[in-house]
């Protein structure tokens, strides 16, 4: 797989996660070792990675995630509610919403749940880019490494509605914040193709807006 292919075919995998096939912990460790090579502000490396494989804890996290997903889908601001005036994009959004609903019901069945975290005694007021910029690139590197090894992942954050409850469940200290919840599993089917995106010239601004 070339770098371009890896970068353009790493999709959010929801319905195609293989919920029955175990994922070796050594494979997850390989992906995390790669994630640790990502940039970190000031080289602080304040990240932590909670990997959940215990069935009861996965189910508990899945229950919280399902509750948050159902509220999100009923909110009127979910993916399926966007771009209703554009028939082509609306159809894509409905598929995204449908797959999000599926993952909401099955998150706890994913064989591995990865929660990237970062040390933060308190969230900065105003601009938080420096904080999350020291975690999210590493989480994306984890997902790319997983894709290169035949694993599917999905970037999710709806569980953060219940961040405190999940922190208590997993014993995450109060000075550590969660950044995402990444289900990890082998995927069904052969491969993935690049997603349809809006033309670059619609979003490119040279030397100013």
UniProtKB/TrEMBL annotation:
Keywords: Oxidoreductase
GO molecular function: 5,6-dimethylbenzimidazole synthase activity
Keyword Oxidoreductase: yes
EC number, as in UniProt: 1.13.11.79
Ranges of residues in domain Nitroreductase: 9-175
Gene3D superfamilies, A to Z: NADH Oxidase
Protein name (Swiss-Prot/TrEMBL): 5,6-dimethylbenzimidazole synthase
Transmembrane feature ranges: none
Enzyme class per UniProt: oxidoreductase
Lineage of the organism: Bacteria, Bacillati, Actinomycetota, Actinomycetes, Streptosporangiales
Origin superkingdom: Bacteria
């Amino acid at each position: 797989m070339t770098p371009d292919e890896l970068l353009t075919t790493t999709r959010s995998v929801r319905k195609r996660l293989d919920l029955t096939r175990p994922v070796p912990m050594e494979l997850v460790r390989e992906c995390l070792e790669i994630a640790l090579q990502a940039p970190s502000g000031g080289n602080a490396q304040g990240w932590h990675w909670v990997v959940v494989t215990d069935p009861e804890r996965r189910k508990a996290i899945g229950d919280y995630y399902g509750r948050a997903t159902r509220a999100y889908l009923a909110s009127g601001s979910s993916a399926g509610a966007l771009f209703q005036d554009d028939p082509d994009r609306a159809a894509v959004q409905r598929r995204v919403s449908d797959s999000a609903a599926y993952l909401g019901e099955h998150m706890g069945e994913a064989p591995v749940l990865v929660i990237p975290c970062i040390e933060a005694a308190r969230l900065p007021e105003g601009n938080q880019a420096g904080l999350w910029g020291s975690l999210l690139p590493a989480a994306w590197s984890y997902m790319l490494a997983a894709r290169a090894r035949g694993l599917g992942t999905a970037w999710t954050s709806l569980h953060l509605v219940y961040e405190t409850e999940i922190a208590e469940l997993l014993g995450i200290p109060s000075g550590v914040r969660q950044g995402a919840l990444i289900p990890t599993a082998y995927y069904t089917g052969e491969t993935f193709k690049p997603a349809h995106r809006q033309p670059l010239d619609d979003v490119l601004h040279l030397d100013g807006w």
